[in-house]
Amino acid sequence: MPDQLMQLLFSGLTLGSIYALIALALVTTFNITGVLNLAQGEFAAIGSLLAISLYAAGIPSTVAFILSIALVAMLGGLLERAAIYPARRASGLTLIIITIGLSISLRGLALLIWGTETYSLPAFTKGGPLFIGGAAVNPQSIWILGLAILTLSLLYTFFELTYAGKAVKAAVVNRTAARLVGINPGTVSFWAFMGSGALGAAAGIFIAPVTMTTYDMGFMLGVKGFVAAVIGGLSSVGGAVVGGLLLGVLESYCAGLVSSGLKDALAVIVLLAVLLVRPQGLLGVLGERKI
Amino acid sequence: MLKIKGLDVYHGYVQAIRGLSLRVKEGELLAILGANGAGKSTLLGTLAGLHKPAKGNILIRKGDTPPAEECPQYKKGFKPHAGECPQWEDITGNAPEKMVRRGISLVPERREIFGSLSVLDNLVLGAYHRYRSCGKGAILNDAREVMEIFPALKGREKEMAGTLSGGLQQMLAIGRALMARPRLLLLDEPSVGLAPLVVREIMSVLARLKQTGVTIVLVEQNTRAALKVADGALVMERGSITLSGSSAELMSNSKV
Known about the structure:
The complex is a heterodimer of chains A (291) and B (256). With 291 residues, chain A is mostly helical. Chain A has helices at 2-33, 40-56, 61-84, 92-114, 139-161, 163-173, 175-180, 185-207, 217-232, 237-258, 263-277, and strands at 130-132, 135-137. Chain A has a single domain, classed as Orthogonal Bundle (ABC transporter involved in vitamin B12 uptake, BtuC). Chain A has a two-stranded antiparallel ribbon with strand order 1-2. In chain A, helix 2 (40-56) runs parallel beside helix 4, helix 3 runs antiparallel to helix 8 (185-207) and helix 5 crosses helix 6 (163-173). The radius of gyration of chain A is 19 Å and the shape is globular. The model of chain A has no long low-confidence stretch (mean pLDDT 89). Chain B is α/β, with parallel strands linked by helices. Chain B contains ten helices and ten strands. A six-stranded mixed β-sheet of chain B has the order 6-7-8-3-9-10, sandwiched between helices. A four-stranded antiparallel β-sheet of chain B has the order 2-1-4-5, covered by helices on one side. In chain B, strand 9 (232-237) and strand 10 form a beta hairpin. Classes of the chains: A mainly alpha (291), B alpha/beta (256).
């Protein structure tokens, strides 16, 4: 039994890292722009499908991955200019509806290009599972966990140690004051969407070897990422990671000890519980301002 | 250095500025006086790019006389004689981030500092538009110079700006605006809610700044303090100028 619990814990952490990556992109974009981008999961799906197609076309894996991340980053920037920027003075609800529209459109586009087939990528590292504390851990899980840690470190470095990061923080803290010192919130928003596109694509590529990639996998990823972000407090970067890992572990234990059919329902139950008991999330603060 | 011609500004359906025309000389400290709702803050906001005028023009004299090669007419094959290169730039309706690049910095009435960032970060971000061209070292030097102007900020570089007292926040807001190296500094009621001693210190800093060549437009309800440091002043009522003159003239005017 303890071995099984350990195994479920590691499976949960892998799953949680995936949710954490999506939640990180969601929270960062939300903090910077005030837009809750519900098309975030689609960035992961398209990034993953693009990388698979490029790799299948004979392009070396590293080049294919970088190219896919760059293309999805550009897609993020393009969508921001085409759909978010023109509606920048609209209400938060309108912007959410726009992102839902984007999500549906991107899914439709993916269906047209890749069809309903299932795709996969080979694992980044060859060889069997690693054994940690009696649990078998897929090496790809370490890659996913590593990407989550790397992303968190990069975000911390950017926001705390770079001038550009402080300028972005300033735009979040006080939009009017930021404009008065010469920071253009429109440019900040554009780069935030580029970044969220890149991060989403990277997440999609890293999870492709352990999950079956389909045109519509972004929907569920987006939902789980959103739940993870809400658990963490929606505005907290650290909270997004904690929320993602927690949701992943809970889902894993639910699937292993209760029923795998309840796995997806659990996310909604957790979401409702958090909103009822602690609406500000685990690490969030009530009443924070967004731009 | 600044010309405003026939300016109309609306807040929704309410007209806040009515056909206002004004000239501000280089190096002048102009005080704008008037009751609440006279349109003073709207005027400053419009100059800083926060409000778009419905009518009229805002012109600013170009920073330095441009060398002949930079004159747009020269580029079209016309070699101008001295004085023929356009000296005034129309900045009507420019966004705030463009206005600051034209040398206009606003210290808003509510200070609008970045409360959750440190004092030093606030100052350094004030120089955002010239960070790339000047580099970190020069900007940090400028921040040190600002702290010489406002010694009360010294030793508080790492403190969160939001935890400072009102007076210190006002000093920080002015310091942040100075970091942009403005040619035209706009101050919206810097004395509001502050102790007389702090008001005196801020006014003496403005007087010193004027001597360095910075043009200042000061909106104030504290008439006496403003007229003491100003060269000229004007009184606004319902969006129009009703009275103007030197500060000495206005000081002796019973209507002010």
